[in-house]
Design a protein that fits this description.
Alpha-Beta Plaits; 72% helix
């Protein structure tokens, strides 16, 4: 047989086997629905865990932004020394933002916060206050080392910071990250296990069909391909359904938890910010889990119920 004929035959077999995968979904509707339901549930849990993580992270970041360092400047510092200090602070690793706060600004803020009691400061001007820099930190894990570095700079009078809050924020951030990853990994394993067993049940319902194909000399991959296509299609359908449902549920949750997030001075992260990640995650998880589940279960079935073909 010529190369062209072999290629045409192979291409025909591939089209035929792919069509068989689509046909299996139509014929075995009950098992298809069961597989989609299981995978859909796992994808919804994964999506929910991701969106909860993103929103908790947003709240932590918001609180972290409010946990600023106030660096007070020595009154004896010259203009050049003060400029050098500002440059050093801005160039310090882990410093996200550095804003100059004059003594007049600080004095105005004090008067505003005191309200009716501001009259007690009558006759006192802002000269008793030092100039300062409001510094925002990027990573809470390196908070202490950043403060230590800033303290070492020339012309620094004192530093006001809340290291205890920063440490708690860093601990919460790490814990949330670890828990979220663990949940996703566990759900992926559970999803793969359930899909594999669901497809394995399907194998037994098609045992006669598989036995006939083995009897006429079909290779293992000839048998596997329709099931592989079926697993991929189930994964895509599950991913699309999960994305639509998670979008609807998240939109409803935004309305329910609006007031709670407002109290925290924050809003829920817009779905659009994580939408692309969810689409990619759902498709990748659905396709890979569906395909692997089919291949694993069919591989075990062929080992247990059929001889491995030499030209596999």
């Amino acid at each position: 047989m010529s190369k062209k004929n072999k290629f045409s035959k192979g291409r025909f077999n591939l089209r035929y086997l792919t069509r068989e995968g689509f046909r299996n979904i139509r014929v075995h509707k009950l098992m298809t629905v069961a597989s989609i339901t299981v995978m859909l549930s796992c994808l919804l849990l994964i999506g929910g865990a991701y969106l909860i993580y993103v929103n908790i992270q947003s709240v932590i970041d918001r609180v972290g932004e409010q946990n600023v360092i106030m660096v007070f400047v020595d009154d004896n510092a010259t203009q050049d020394e003060e400029s050098a200090l500002e440059k050093n602070i801005k160039n310090t690793p882990n410093v996200k933002e550095c804003t100059f706060v004059s003594r007049d600004e600080s004095y105005s803020t004090i008067l505003y916060n005191m309200g009716d009691s501001a009259s007690t400061l009558k006759g006192i001007d802002s000269s008793f206050l030092p100039d300062a820099y409001k510094v925002t930190i990027s990573e809470m894990e390196d908070f202490d080392s950043t403060v230590l570095k800033i303290r070492s700079y020339k012309s620094v009078l004192s530093v006001r910071e809340n290291g205890e809050l920063a440490a708690k924020l860093a601990s919460i951030q790490n814990a949330v990250g670890i828990i979220s990853i663990a949940i996703v990994v566990i759900l992926l394993i559970v999803s793969l296990f359930i899909i594999a067993n669901t497809v394995r049940i399907t194998m037994f319902s098609r045992s006669l069909e598989i036995s006939i194909m083995k009897a006429v000399g079909a290779t293992n991959w000839f048998i596997r391909w329709p099931f592989l296509v079926e697993g991929i299609i189930i994964g895509i359908i599950s991913a699309a359904a999960a994305y639509g449902l998670i979008f609807a549920l998240y939109s409803a949750a935004e309305k329910v938890f609006y007031e709670m997030f407002s109290i925290l001075g924050n809003t829920m992260v817009p779905f659009s910010e994580g939408g692309i990640i969810l689409v990619i995650t759902f498709l990748a998880t659905g396709i890979i889990t569906g395909a692997l589940g089919s291949l694993i279960s069919l591989g075990k079935y062929l080992k247990e119920h059929g001889k491995v073909v030499a030209n596999d």
